[in-house]
Design goal:
The complex is a heterodimer. A seven-stranded mixed beta sheet of chain A has the order 2-1-3-4-8-7-9, with helices on both faces. Chain A has a two-stranded antiparallel ribbon with strand order 5-6. Chain A is α/β, with parallel strands linked by helices. Chain A has helices at 26-40, 74-84, 96-102, 104-112, 153-156, 162-166, 183-201, 216-219, 223-237, 250-254; strands at residues 46-50, 65-68, 89-95, 118-123, 126-127, 133-134, 172-179, 206-212, 241-245. The longest helix of chain A has 19 residues, at 183-201. In chain A, helix 1 (26-40) crosses helix 7 and helix 3 crosses helix 4 (104-112). By secondary structure, chain B is of the alpha/beta class. Chain B folds into two domains: 4-191 and 211-236, Thiamin diphosphate (ThDP)-binding fold, Pyr/PP domains (Rossmann fold), CATH 3.40.50.970; 240-350, Rossmann fold (3-Layer(aba) Sandwich), CATH 3.40.50. Chain B has helices spanning 9-19, 34-43, 57-69, 80-96, 122-126, 144-161, 171-175, 216-236, 256-271, 295-298, 313-319, 339-350; strands spanning 4-8, 24-27, 50-53, 74-78, 101-106, 137-139, 165-170, 177-181, 208-209, 240-243, 250-253, 276-281, 283-285, 301-306, 326-330. Chain B has a seven-stranded mixed beta sheet, with helices on both faces. Chain B has a five-stranded mixed beta sheet with strand order 10-12-11-14-15, sandwiched between helices. In chain B, helix 1 (9-19) packs across helix 2 (34-43) and helix 1 (9-19) packs parallel to helix 6 (144-161). The longest helix of chain B has 21 residues, at 216-236. Chain B is globular and about 75 Å long. The chains are: A alpha/beta, B alpha/beta. Chain A binds chain B through residues 14, 43-47, 49-50, 56-57, 59-60, 62-70, 73, 76-85, 87-89, 105-106, 108-109, and chain B through 24, 26, 50, 52, 54-56, 58-60, 62-70, 72, 74, 88-89, 92, 96, 197-203, 206-212. Strand 2 (65-68) of chain A pairs parallel with strand 9 of chain B, so a sheet runs across the interface.
Chain lengths: 255, 353
């Protein structure tokens, strides 16, 4: 009987096995990015920028050229790549500590400049790589290694809502928040990532997809509990949806 | 453009970079280097280049990392406090073997310091431009013409050895005007950058520019390999200039603006009968130790002349293998030593009066 391949690894992923913990959703998001690169046929002209955090070694996983940035600086590195080689498709892949704490300035200014780049922002409300400290996106009362009594907003302040914040900037083409907790949301995430890459190819401006993700290890849960925790706690605080979808500067034209 | 033109040091650095094929400048305003950025803002659009004002020195240097990572010639410029912020990206560039140009038009420090000329970033430039085991090329011009010439060389040598390069100038050189000749297209050779991350076009395995190596033996091996390259640089790239050293028994050692002062001091002291000369390092890393080979035997004493508290003294001591005394004269905090202050030191060390 002839064998028929019905499912395979995207071409844009290498053969190196992921190092991620069981139940971590980075693997799904990596795959979605790779599927989009395959579908757009742009691997050969794509340059990715790796973050510091759990996804730090994704330069080994993506088959396109990759540059490893310092913590938080991926949007600046991506800016340099894109300005030097506008014909390249340039994306960053960043976690919440990287993008929304140490790299806030780089994120906001790449966005407001309307840098024609794509950012995949993985929000799991915790610093995973360093063992579970409070992130800028940790929820009020969330217990982490550095908020052992729960995040007290009077001491540690409030979580950052990145898509809401960036959607106010004229350089942004797309700001969309999705999740990978269920098949429906995974499919929506892929569509959003594809749009974020297509926007760049169409020179529409800065595109960011914020993906709500799980960290069973540092949340102290099994993978199923982690997905349920995401649904019950994260989605209400970080509503899924499209916060901006257009072309950079379009609001100015309408005024 | 082979006629003489009158140019400010900062602007000369910028024009020289454009002539060297640099089309990507990422900056952030800071005194006293601002004219460099302003010149780039005016000129880059005319040569289809990119001038981008970043949100911080940190971002500017990381933009340079990204641009240079694609294989193009890219640069940033700043002054002392800004270089501290750029040191993050400089360390990463060194760790990824990405060549790029960083200009430091030094001002007084520490902290916010002042905005007057200084050479107090010598240690930062030559010993610790960031964390980790690494060096960068450091060129120290003493005239506006030399600022121009060394920019082209810094790009060429950076590319050749895959190493970041710095022009270590100061506020005096940056702000002064001198007649210069700007050679057109000083790019001597553009090396093939097979390591560049600009898309593999489905023709090769992906390139990765990365400084993370979690296996200690792997990281150690890479650093040792890099240091072998540093050894070649130390052997081949030392540069210096000599002035009236033939019979000198007192040797002034000075670079940049201090060398100009020392040059005058040598002439004054010679008239007074002192056998004194000037050794001017042009490269600060690699330090021109070869220049001292004979001098450390023939000279009686060395005087390091600096606009700092004597940061270069130890390098002079090492170069003379402590065979002769090494003295220091200098000013700091934005003050420039006068030729007479240097002459007084020569007299003190020479012991004739």
């Amino acid at each position: 009987m002839e064998e028929k391949i019905v499912f395979s690894k995207p071409k844009a992923l290498t053969d190196i096995p992921f190092h991620y913990c069981s139940g971590c959703t980075h693997g799904i998001i990596h795959r979605l990015v790779a599927e989009v690169i395959d579908e757009l046929g742009c691997e050969g002209r794509t340059v990715g920028v790796s973050p510091v955090g759990c996804a730090v070694m994704n330069y080994d996983y993506f088959g396109c050229d990759m540059i490893e940035a310092a913590h938080g600086r991926a949007p600046a590195v991506a800016t340099g790549i894109k300005r030097a080689k506008p014909e390249n498709v340039v994306f960053t892949y960043q976690g919440d500590g990287d993008l929304a704490a140490i790299g806030t300035a780089e994120t906001v200014h790449a966005a407001t400049r309307g840098e024609n780049i794509t950012i995949i922002f993985v929000n799991n409300t915790i610093y995973g790589m360093t063992g579970g400290q409070m992130a800028p996106t940790s929820l009020p009362n969330q217990v982490t290694q550095t908020t052992p009594y729960g995040r007290d907003v009077n001491i540690a302040g409030y979580p950052v809502r990145i898509c809401e914040m960036l959607s106010t900037l004229d350089g942004v083409a797309l700001a969309q928040r999705t999740a990978v907790d269920c098949v429906k949301h995974v499919n929506e995430t892929k569509k959003a990532i594809k749009k974020a890459f297509q926007n760049q190819i169409d020179k529409k401006g800065f595109s960011i997809v914020e993906v709500l993700s799980t960290c069973p290890t540092n949340w102290g849960m099994n993978p199923i509990q982690a997905v349920e925790w995401l649904q019950k706690n994260m989605i209400p605080y970080y509503p899924l949806g499209v916060y901006k979808d257009g072309v950079k500067g379009d609001r100015l034209k309408n005024e | 453009m082979n006629n003489k033109v009158l140019m400010k040091g900062n602007e000369a650095l910028a024009e020289a970079a454009i002539q060297a094929g640099c089309r990507y400048f990422f900056g952030y305003p800071i005194t006293p280097q601002t004219e460099l950025a302003a010149y780039m803002a005016k000129k880059m659009p005319k040569v289809n280049g990119v001038y981008l004002q970043a949100e911080s020195e940190i971002a500017a240097a990381n933009m340079v990392l990204g641009a240079a990572g694609t294989g193009v010639r890219a640069m940033t410029s700043s002054s002392s406090p800004g270089i501290s912020l750029k040191s993050e990206a400089i360390s990463y560039m060194a760790g990824c073997d990405i060549p790029a140009l960083i200009v430091n038009v030094q001002r007084g420090g520490p902290g916010l310091g002042g905005i007057q000329p200084s050479q107090a970033d010598y240690w930062q430039a030559t010993k610790a431009t960031g964390h980790g085991d690494f060096q960068i090329l450091v060129f120290a011009p003493a005239t506006v013409q030399e600022m121009i010439d060394l920019v082209g060389l810094a790009f060429d040598k950076g590319d050749e050895y895959r190493i970041p390069a710095m022009i270590l100038a100061d506020g005096m050189l940056g702000q002064m005007m001198e007649p210069v000749t700007i050679p057109e297209h000083t790019t001597q050779h553009l090396v093939e950058k097979s390591w560049a991350c600009c898309g593999h076009q489905n023709k090769r395995k992906h390139n990765v520019l990365n400084s993370l190596f979690l296996t200690p033996s792997e990281l150690e091996k890479l650093i040792i390999e890099r240091y072998k390259r540093y050894d070649i640089i130390k052997e081949k790239e030392q540069r210096w200039e000599e002035y009236r050293l033939d019979d000198a028994d007192i040797v002034l050692v000075a670079y940049g603006a201090s060398a100009r002062v020392s040059h005058t001091a040598v002439d004054i002291a010679r008239e007074k009968g002192y056998k004194v000369g000037l050794l001017r390092p042009v490269t600060l890393w690699p330090y021109p130790t070869k220049a001292f080979t004979t001098l450390k035997e023939t000279a009686r004493a060395f005087i390091s002349v600096e606009m700092s508290m004597g940061q270069m003294v130890d390098d002079v001591r090492l170069a003379v293998e402590c065979k002769k005394p090494v003295h220091f004269v200098g000013r700091t905090g934005g003050k420039i030593p006068t030729p007479m202050e240097v002459v007084d030191k020569i007299v003190e060390v020479g012991g004739m009066d």
